[in-house]
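Morning!

This is the sequence you dropped in the shared folder:
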Amino acid sequence: MNLLLRTIQSFPKGKFAEELIFLLDKDCDPHKRISVLSELIELERQDLIYRDMDGKWRRRYYNSLSSTVEVGGADGQGLDAVPGTFSELPHSDSEVSSIEVAGEIDLKKLLGYFKVAVRSDPRGAMGTIPESHSTKWQLISGGLPQFFSETEMQNIRLEVRLDQLPATFRQALMRREETDRSIALGWPVCTGVDRSAPKIWPVGLFSGQYEKTDTHLCIEFDLQNIFVNPLWARENHRSIGWNHKQLQTLFQIGAANPIPITDFISKLREAAAGHYSGALNGQGLANSIMTNIEKIWDAFGIFLNDDNTFNKGIIDDFKAFENMPSNAFEKTAIHDFIYGAKISEDFLPALNIGPTNKDQLHAIQNALSSSVSVIMGPPGTGKSQTIASIVSSTLMSGGSVLFSSKNHQALDAVIDRLSGLAPDVNYAVRTYDRNGDIDVSFKDVMDEIAKQPTIATEDFDPKLKSKLSTMAATRSNAIIKQDKTENIECDIADLLYRIKFRESGKYQSAHPAEKSARERTFFIEFLTRLIFFWRNKTQEPELADKASEIDAPLSVLNDYLKKLRDEKDNYDNKIDILQLTDEISEIAQHLLPSILKSQAQLSEDELRNLMNANDANALLNSDHKMTAQVADKILKARPLWLSSVQSTSKRIPLLPGLFDILVIDEATQCDVASAIPLMFRAKKVVVVGDDKQLKFIPNIGKAQDLNFMKLHGLEPERAVRFSQSTLSLFDAFLRVPQVQKSLLRSQYRSAPDIVEYISTQFYQGALTVAVDYKSMKCPKDQKPGIVWTDVKPGIEIRNDNVNRAEITAISKHLKMLLVDQKYEGSVGFVAPFRAQVHEFERQVVQAISSDLLIKANLKCGTVDSFQGDERDLILFSPTLSNNSTSSAVNFVRKDFRRLNVAISRAKAVAHIFGDLNYANSNRVRSLGKLASFATRKLKKPTGEGVFDSEWERQLFHALKKRGLDPVPQYEIAGRRLDFALFGIGNIKIDVEVDGRRWHTDIDGNRKVSDIWRNRQLEALGWKVMRFWVDELDKDMERCVDLIEQSLT
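The structure's back. Tokens below.
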């Protein structure tokens, strides 16, 4: 064994290449350093060492491990099996009928599937250790029945005498609840090492159901329902000389259907030739296995999944569901999540706290009126503001809210947003925080309420509350009228286009051969009339239908134009929606504290009733579970609860429809099953998320997921919309029948250039700029937007996901900003790799004083850790270059959405420091697109091509004829104005032409009067004048007069 290999073996926890070079005393000679690196590569090629995910080199062990590891049995001799009897059960059609093939999905079966999914190994597969044998898993000897060649069900019954099972294993069985009969089975069994420690993997996985008699443990399972353990393929593939992807393909890991048992055996024998013991046919199962040898054993094991403390509360909730009747779920959000959303019969007005746009109002109203709704919130689009308004609207109407998220950062953000609404009122409860400093339950709050002094409650003005509801309803009607008017104006614009084109003489009939009705054949004329008479005997076709025909006569088009203009007059809306929105916000913020205060302070009678009900419950119920009567009184005093997904079950009672509404933020990072107990506690549910940011990481793998579905009688094709292995909670909600969806489009955080990038690359151009320019803090001589500084990589000796050239360039630039320019904005450093972040942190603290770094609020983090945060200036290090390893490249390549998160953290400037040549090589397409965008050269349209429509061209020349100087397509605040005109003093006018043909947004909707975006320009000193196409057609001179008067 050479010196380098012995050195690596001496450090089981691994060493970086640079550390090995130092230990070998070769760090001073560049040639010796390179020789060590070359030797590392050669040893890796020989599979004697491997480079782990953390960048450290470790020794790889094969075959006999007795020299380094002694585990299992006495002195590492082995693990013993207990005898079992396997018998084949007769095929039963009744078992097939348990699979749902028609009708509604069974609620109880689905809940059972969710429970097992939560209990399963969070890595998505199964592996264990020798030390837990006889406690959490047990080997069974005997012999499986002969396998069928077909893939039909082959039901097997395994019987094991209880007195032959270890006492520790029987005790583990007793701890499992009576109603949970699921159990995992594995055959054959593989022994090996994982990071120098011995480990056990079942190669094939079955799902079974067990029962205990007085003398036996009996397990039934389908021998043909076998899936290959994904964890074995991922962690132990090298021991049999394969790579992970090859095994995935060979065994169809992750496929929808199980692999036929005969195919499984033949493929495993071929793949593991020379690496298994016995015949590998299950006929003579091993009586013992050796844990100090890397081998696949013809052995059978049964495995118990313990309820880990992380999910114990959620699992306890699922256990409670099993004892509830199905009708207990009917008035909860679970029911409508599974069977379809419903619109509430009670109208709750959508209130707003602070400035709110149309998309946000739409989302708020959906949340209040629908039992299930989804809010899609791209970065910087005001999710927290929307959530705050949903909460405020519900509390104002006397309702209660449970706000939850998978991470505590989202909870912190909403608390910060709501803290100023009623600072002197104790109306909100945070159940648990990330540091464990807060730990509050319903019982704790009840004790707190009982101790508070009884004082006279403060009443609020009911007239003012009634007025607020009326104003909100008026605004909703006004928005509906505005939408109707906009649709009519667009239809009018279409008609005017057709009429003008007809009158121009350029129009040709779509049927030139049919010049008149007289020229049609008698047969065609007769058949046409007959068909029409059969379809509609008495009713004449609508005027709209006549006008929609391609060859509609000009007289019909003019008649329809008159009809639309008359209809538009009926929808004349004289309400200033923006002013009304401001007034609603002002009154709501004034009224909400007094309403919450009147609810938070219970009267003496209410307090006495609460204590009596609680005392009676304690006396009559042995489990002392809180009743709905007591919980409702607590919610009256504390109507807002904020809790993480995991902490809810232990602190909030499991009562159906306890809260009026449940809001789940960051739903793209949450699995479906974990949120089910939350939904039971609420009548309505709204999830908020963005599937264009970080990728969802599932809790279980596809193979295990399919096993769980079939175990609970669920047909995968019908249960797929609840899949734990493929869908986040956000994805699952998008698939709910009749779900109400809202997209927040106005981006308030970032500079126009940044918004344009994330909008075009990730949101199909749906986002609009709404940033407050006055809040932007750009470095000296730098415009807001995206900047790319080309940094050529140096010669890297280590492949440890660190690009020192980029770190040096960024450190130098940051020092110039903070020391020389005294930059006052906040700064963030973002990189894809943790190693790059750590190295930058190490260098920057040496180069820049800590006082300046604190003043700049410098945060350094990976893309994942930066989600939900923001800074004025983001310094992004892609890290990748031609020196990067393929694993590093694939890490960035496989999830293009990371760049969305990285760039959208910036408010004013996103400054990228990277190798431009490498980016333009498109090895990572998303990085290439970013480089192309950052270095693009903009070309402004010129000549007649500058106009979007004929109406713009006509208006332009009409203004010119008056001696005015309109500037078409003028760029300001991230948008292009149709026309900009400048008058006496500081007069600035934006003239917009609305409803014109061919000008549509991302949803295909015609460009209409966007009164909500007008405010952005008005804040910058512009006056916005909007004209419908119909107005220009009726009286172009009057429109020009209005513009001219505004300029003077």
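Headline: DSSP finds 40 helices and 34 strands in the chain.

More detail when I'm at my desk.
O.
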